[in-house]
Amino acid sequence: MRAAVIIPAAGSGTRTGLKTPKPFILLDGEPLVLHSLRVFQRHRAVALIQPVLPRDLLGTFRRRVLQRYPLNKCLPPVAGGRERQDSVFMGLKALPEDVEIVVVHDAARPFITAAVITRVIEAAARHGAALAAVPAQDTIKMRSRRGMVVETVDRSSLWQAQTPQAFRAGILREAHSRASSDGYRGTDDASLVERLGLPVRLVEGSSRNMKVTTPGDLALARALVRKQ
Ligand code: C5P
Question: Does ligand 1 lie within 6 Å of residue 122's CB atom?
Answer without folding.
Answer: no
